[in-house]
């Protein structure tokens, strides 16, 4: 296990579906992290989508959610839609994108339950994924769900880490690593942690 030089204090992160490398960097480097569950659900964020690299470029995989009665639905109350075949579609997308990557066969069986079992709440699903990914990457961070909305936080990354219009983060500089389609598209930074895991395997931790 790689031991990180921990940054002091607590960092707050938004919930995320197979979060990007930047999200796991914070999880790995801070003494303690809180995953926010009392913020409002926002569309087109990492809360219910992840980004992977395909032969056509970057592809977003989105989890459908049940229609909410109010625009200000708390993240903890968001339910995953039981309609459609999104799990099978995401599973097939990963096979197509990473089936030829160096470590796909090594890790894919560990991830299969997330695309087979029916899940209720999005936050619980994302948290279970994070716990499994930490195990696969071989890190043991300290992170817990929030007990209320975190208002005054020194290390607040809830708005920093997002797919569209992210805020500047001077502590995160993506380091290029091997990617299956790098020769075709160039290096694609800060994709889902799955991209780093399937391509780099046990060495993924060194990029955090």
Unreliable segments of 5+ consecutive residues: none
Distance between the termini: 13 Å
Radius of gyration: 16 Å
Quick check: average pLDDT? 94
Number of strands: 6
Number of helices: 6
Q: Estimate percent helicity.
A: 25-40%
- Spatial shape: globular
Q: How large is the share of residues in beta strands?
A: 15-25%
Q: Tell me the series of helices and strands, N- to C-terminal.
A: EHEEEHHHEEHH
Q: Biggest sheet, strands in spatial order?
A: 5-2-1-6
Based on secondary structure, the structural category is alpha/beta
Query: Which sheet architecture does the biggest sheet show?
Result: 4 strands, parallel
Question: Which features does this protein show?
Answer:
alpha/beta, single chain, 6 helices, 6 strands, four-stranded parallel beta sheet
Walk me through this protein's architecture.
The chain contains six helices and six strands. The strands form two sheets. It has a four-stranded parallel beta sheet with strand order 5-2-1-6, with helices on one face. Strands 3-4 form a two-stranded antiparallel ribbon. It starts with 6 loop residues before the first strand and ends in an 8-residue tail after the last helix.
């Amino acid at each position: 296990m790689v031991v990180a030089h921990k940054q002091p204090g607590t960092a707050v992160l938004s919930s995320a579906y197979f979060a990007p490398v930047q999200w796991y960097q914070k999880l790995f480097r801070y003494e303690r992290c809180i995953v926010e569950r009392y913020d409002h659900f926002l569309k087109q964020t990492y809360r219910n989508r992840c980004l992977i690299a395909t032969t056509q470029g970057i592809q977003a995989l989105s989890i459908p959610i049940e229609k909410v009665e109010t625009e200000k639905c708390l993240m903890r109350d968001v339910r995953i839609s039981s309609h459609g075949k999104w799990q099978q579609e995401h599973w097939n997308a990963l096979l197509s994108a990473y089936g030829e990557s160096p470590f796909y066969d090594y890790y894919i069986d560990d991830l299969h339950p997330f695309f087979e079992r029916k899940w209720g709440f999005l936050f619980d699903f994302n948290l279970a994924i994070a716990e499994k990914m930490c195990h696969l990457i071989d890190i043991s961070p300290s992170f817990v769900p929030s007990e209320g909305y975190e208002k005054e936080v020194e290390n607040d990354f809830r708005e920093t880490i997002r797919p569209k219009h992210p805020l500047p983060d001077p502590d995160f500089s993506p380091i290029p690593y091997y990617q299956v389609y790098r020769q075709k598209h160039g290096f694609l930074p800060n994709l889902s942690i799955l991209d780093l895991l399937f391509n780099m395997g046990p060495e993924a931790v060194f990029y955090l």
